[in-house]
């Protein structure tokens, strides 16, 4: 199901309305405005969904396993992939709780809210009604500038909440009805200053995984969750990669796409498609997290990056069975803490690692350290850059504060060199090496003599 057209045609306020756009930008959800398609390739989606394995949350293809990772979410959508997971109970709230939230956070009268819930058969707001709520609050906010500050602020907050609820309901939390948004998501929009502390990326990925699992069941006709064509002329490098292409209308049935996937070769696959986008969205260590992600208590899915190491630039090893628990170590941390301790301590103790199994997958902390070393191994280049910057500052007169800032920057730039530079192993100066060579030569001579005698 695709709500992209609804988002693209949504009437947005003017860019000069700073009280609106500053909060939307700070929420971390503004990039979702640029990630919507009017058309989707239904046949391609169906062909991929047929190859989805709910036990591992991966697509099983002739070339091996691949999946949608947190790194994909970060680069394609530019939304947060760290923070607290959405932790509401079930998939929806009761109608009484929904009425209370709509009255308090959307300025939506209880009587109208009850009628809307009855029409939608649950605690849901239809997209047309939610757009009306947004427009009504926006008009009141613009007219109420001479009233008390609390009244004006309430209208503004209700306008932003209605917009953000419409935005996430039409993108990362698209359900199969395509008609409404669950009011339960208002729980995370109560305090607008804390919206960016929620892990929208991982929760949206869990939501998609859940609908992919449902789509593999018999008699399932629709598919929910966020969503080849020509390149978009409006695309800029700072935009989400999802906005780079515009899918065209394609054949509805998956026959042709199935054949393409069945004939796929490894050399036809780009496992790391975001390398030219890293200056905009750097790789985050949290993408190595292995465990469970959730979107409420009813949608809890496994996230197993060790099954798709090629997508992280490493050789694929034999992963653990999906029914087995992860070994003691980094995998036992929560998604918020998984790499916080690693980055602070910069090493992992033996107690944290625990006993290693024979078939244990690739050591994640080692892979992370290898990546960091690889990214910062050109020590001379870093030093030359620092020298050039310092020499450039010497051309003019520096105040004491400016000099302090220069020194701080030098320390920041040289810190990775001291952290990740590899020690060079030197050969011993003793004559041990020459003695070994002499012994080898004597053995060779003895062998020749024996062969001659024979």
Automatic annotation (TrEMBL):
<dbReference type="InterPro" id="IPR019557">
    <property type="entry name" value="AminoTfrase-like_pln_mobile"/>
</dbReference>
<feature type="region of interest" description="Disordered">
    <location>
        <begin position="421"/>
        <end position="454"/>
    </location>
</feature>
<protein>
    <recommendedName>
        <fullName>Aminotransferase-like plant mobile domain-containing protein</fullName>
    </recommendedName>
</protein>
<feature type="domain" description="Aminotransferase-like plant mobile">
    <location>
        <begin position="34"/>
        <end position="217"/>
    </location>
</feature>
<dbReference type="GO" id="GO:0010073">
    <property type="term" value="P:meristem maintenance"/>
</dbReference>
<dbReference type="InterPro" id="IPR044824">
    <property type="entry name" value="MAIN-like"/>
</dbReference>
<dbReference type="Pfam" id="PF10536">
    <property type="entry name" value="PMD"/>
</dbReference>
<feature type="compositionally biased region" description="Basic residues">
    <location>
        <begin position="435"/>
        <end position="454"/>
    </location>
</feature>
<feature type="domain" description="Aminotransferase-like plant mobile">
    <location>
        <begin position="234"/>
        <end position="342"/>
    </location>
</feature>
């Amino acid at each position: 199901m695709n709500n992209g057209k609804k988002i693209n045609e949504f009437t947005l306020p003017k860019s000069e309305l700073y009280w609106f756009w500053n909060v939307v930008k700070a929420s971390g959800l503004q990039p979702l405005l640029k990630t919507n398609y009017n058309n989707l390739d239904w046949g391609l989606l169906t062909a991929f969904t047929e190859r989805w394995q709910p036990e591992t949350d991966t697509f099983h293809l002739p070339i091996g396993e691949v999946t949608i990772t947190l790194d994909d979410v970060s680069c394609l959508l530019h939304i947060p992939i760290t923070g607290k997971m959405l932790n509401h109970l079930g998939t929806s709230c009761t109608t009484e709780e929904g009425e209370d939230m709509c009255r308090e956070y959307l300025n939506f009268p209880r009587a109208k809210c009850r009628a809307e819930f009855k029409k939608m058969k649950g605690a849901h707001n239809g997209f047309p009604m939610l757009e009306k709520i947004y427009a009504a609050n926006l008009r009141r906010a613009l007219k109420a500038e001479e009233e008390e500050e609390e009244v004006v602020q309430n209208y503004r907050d209700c306008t932003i909440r209605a917009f953000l609820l419409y935005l996430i309901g039409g993108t990362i939390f698209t359900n199969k009805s395509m008609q409404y948004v669950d009011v339960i998501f208002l729980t995370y929009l109560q305090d607008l200053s804390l919206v960016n502390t929620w892990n929208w990326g991982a929760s949206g990925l869990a939501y998609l995984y859940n609908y992919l699992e449902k789509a593999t069941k018999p008699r399932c006709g629709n598919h929910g969750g966020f969503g080849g064509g020509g390149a978009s002329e409006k695309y800029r490098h700072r935009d989400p990669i999802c906005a780079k292409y515009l899918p065209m209308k394609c054949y509805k049935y998956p026959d042709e796409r199935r054949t393409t996937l069945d004939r796929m070769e490894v050399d036809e696959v780009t496992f790391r498609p975001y390398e030219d986008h890293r200056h905009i969205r750097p790789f985050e260590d949290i993408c190595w997290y292995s465990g469970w992600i959730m979107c409420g208590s009813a949608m809890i899915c496994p996230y197993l990056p060790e099954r798709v190491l090629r997508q992280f630039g490493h050789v694929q090893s034999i992963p653990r069975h999906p029914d087995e628990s992860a070994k003691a170590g980094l995998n036992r941390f929560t998604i918020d803490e998984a790499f916080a301790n690693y980055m602070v301590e910069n090493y992992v103790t033996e107690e944290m690692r625990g006993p290693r199994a024979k078939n244990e997958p690739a050591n994640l902390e080692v892979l992370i350290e290898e990546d960091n070393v690889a990214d910062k191994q050109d020590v001379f280049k870093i030093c030359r850059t620092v020298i050039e910057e310092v020499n450039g500052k010497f051309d003019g007169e520096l105040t004491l504060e400016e000099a302090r800032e220069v020194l701080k920057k030098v320390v920041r730039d040289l810190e990775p060199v001291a952290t990740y530079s590899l020690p060079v192993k030197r050969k011993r100066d003793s004559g041990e090496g020459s003695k070994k060579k002499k012994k080898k030569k004597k053995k060779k001579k003895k062998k020749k003599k024996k062969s001659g005698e024979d």
